[in-house]
Design a protein that fits this description.
heterodimer, A: mainly alpha, B: alpha/beta, Rossmann fold, 2 domains, four-stranded antiparallel sheet, 9 helices, 10 strands, 38% helix, globular
Chain lengths: 276, 268
């Protein structure tokens, strides 16, 4: 019996067989990174082949190679119009975040305001807010103000709702501890409620970021003054499908970049939050 | 008797006053001398936590008088520290900063208390974990941090609400021994709520047994073991006799119906 026990202990002390966790990690990474990229590339290749084989006219669907050529030809114009789109998106998003957090705080601390506003906010979150875009043109004209205000408007709801959820979901036991320590409401907010709600705020901000860009583009569709949305409408009127797709491609890239900034900020927050 | 540190005089707790009123605690009276370690023992849901929270000013009294240190309890006070069932640490703060959290809230000079916080963490064996976040700590380690947090601002009275009930049996025994070591060093008055009879007898100078509906104190038993104590006393005849006596008192407190149900289950 004693000998057996000794061998078990010895065995436990041996290093694990070298089924390296690194190799497994690499395999996982291959699956998670290479596979989606390969799928997207395959889609583009298929698109190119299909258009050529079926002889689809360029006005209906230009092949990716033609879109790329068009982009190289028109990118000074596209980039010039990307500037107002980006500015309106970023400013609309930033204002929506500030206002959303402020209203979430009001809702959290005032039961009356909560009762009055929260159900309506949830309702507004559910309705197709895009349909309200023309009203903003009626009220604010066809300039940057109306597009910005509309972007702010549709970005605001996901942010205020997730922030209010975060502020409300704070650990009850933690609040009780603060009460036992005779903490003031302000101390509880700064030290506990707000930091606790940050993960919620960021999930709202990620949705909000995509919303902000949608809002700006819809505004540009309608006002037809400037911006990539305007370029798309303009190219549509002239049946320049390759320009449409090039502009959409640029929009996608810019949208992803803005979303990426929010994700990076979220990563920084999580590093602070969990210390990793 | 005027030297008592805690004086509870016929305190009651009634929920939903009016026709639907529910009396949870009925006429509870007890006194605690300064520096005593008192356990409040009773089955789950008997109102022992409510009683503790009343002493901590976190629950209001419906009737009666409750003095701590000669002053009536009207709300939370900084001469009373509370340790809850969950450690409730802030996930973004290190163990050391969590211990210093009350100092921050009470606006005391952090530099002065930093050393004390470090000494407390060293005392509970967390010297190497001071810079770690709660998610890196085990349940027992987290509860140790919570105890240090309650001690750091030097309250005179420590209220502990089943602080070890979420731990496994081994960690729990360890924490009991450690708690006594801490208590030997700091000699605060402690009110300790638990539903473990052996834990109560091992730790306390006196055990108050709660029972009945509405609940009241059905027994007040002295645990006359010399300190410092170790687990050996758990095997003594006297220890086990006290435990047996307390168990009977708890069963009486439950009422006949519950005991009958227990018997049925035992014979089935």
């Amino acid at each position: 019996m004693k000998e057996e026990a000794a061998t078990t202990v010895e065995r436990a002390a041996e290093p694990l067989p070298a089924e390296s966790p690194r190799a497994r990690f690499d395999l996982l990474r291959t699956k998670q990174i290479v596979l989606p990229i390969a799928t997207a590339a395959a889609f583009l290749i298929l698109w190119e082949i299909a258009v050529r084989v079926a002889r689809i006219p360029s006005v209906i669907l230009p092949p990716p190679s033609e879109v790329y050529d068009t982009f190289l030809r028109t990118y000074p114009l596209l980039l010039q119009h990307a500037v107002p789109t980006m500015i309106e998106t970023v400013v609309g998003f930033a204002l929506a975040t500030v206002l959303g957090v402020a209203l979430a705080v009001v809702i959290t601390y005032s039961p009356t305001w909560r009762a009055a506003l929260y159900p309506n906010l949830v309702l507004f979150q559910l309705i197709p807010k895009i349909a309200l875009a023309p009203l903003f043109i009626v009220w604010l004209g066809i300039g940057m103000e109306s597009r910005l205000a509309f972007a702010l408007f549709i970005t605001f709801f996901p942010i205020v709702i997730s922030m209010a959820t975060g502020l409300a979901e704070v650990d009850r036991a933690m609040l009780r501890l603060c009460r036992a320590l005779t903490a003031t409401e302000w101390q509880v907010f700064v030290n506990v409620r707000f930091p606790y709600s940050l993960p919620y705020l960021f999930s709202g901000m990620k949705i909000g970021m995509t919303m902000a860009m949608i809002g700006v583009i819809v505004g540009e569709f309608i006002t037809a003054q400037e911006g990539l949305g305007y370029i798309i409408i303009f190219a549509t009127s002239r049946s320049e499908t390759a320009v449409i797709i090039a502009a959409i491609g640029l929009l996608c890239a810019l949208g992803l970049a803005l979303y990426g900034v929010v994700v990076l900020a979220e990563l920084a927050m999580k590093r602070w939050y969990y210390g990793r | 008797m005027s030297t008592a540190y805690i004086e509870a005089d016929r305190i009651r707790k009634i929920y939903n006053p009016g026709p639907e009123a529910v009396e949870a605690l009925s006429s509870i009276s007890f006194t605690v001398q300064p520096g005593e370690f008192i356990s409040i023992l009773g089955p789950s849901g008997c109102g022992k936590s409510t009683l503790l929270m009343m002493v901590g000013g976190l629950e209001s009294l419906s009737a009666g008088r409750l003095l701590v240190g000669g002053r009536a309890i009207e709300g939370p006070r900084t001469d009373i520290g509370v340790i809850f069932q969950d450690p409730t640490l802030l996930p973004w703060k290190t163990a050391l900063d969590n211990v210093l959290f009350p100092i921050h809230i009470l606006k005391k000079p952090k530099a002065e208390y930093r050393e004390r916080a470090e000494a407390l963490l060293r005392m509970v064996g967390l010297q190497s974990a001071m810079g770690q976040r709660p998610h890196q700590l085990s349940g027992g380690m987290k509860q140790r941090v919570a105890i240090c947090r309650a001690l750091v601002y030097e309250p005179e009275l420590l209220l502990m609400d089943e602080p070890f009930s979420a731990l496994d049996a081994i960690s729990r025994d360890e924490m009991n021994v450690e708690l006594l070591e801490i208590w030997d060093k700091y000699r605060k008055t402690v009110l300790f709520v638990t539903h473990s009879i052996r834990e109560a007898v091992f730790l306390s100078d006196r055990v108050l047994v709660m029972g009945g509906r509405p609940a009241t104190i059905v027994s007040d038993v002295r645990c006359p073991f010399p300190r410092p104590r170790d687990f050996a006393i758990g095997e003594s005849k006297e220890f086990n006799e006290i435990c047996k006596f307390l168990r009977e008192k708890i069963e009486e407190g439950y009422g006949r119906r519950r005991r009958g149900a227990g018997l049925e289950r035992a014979t089935a």
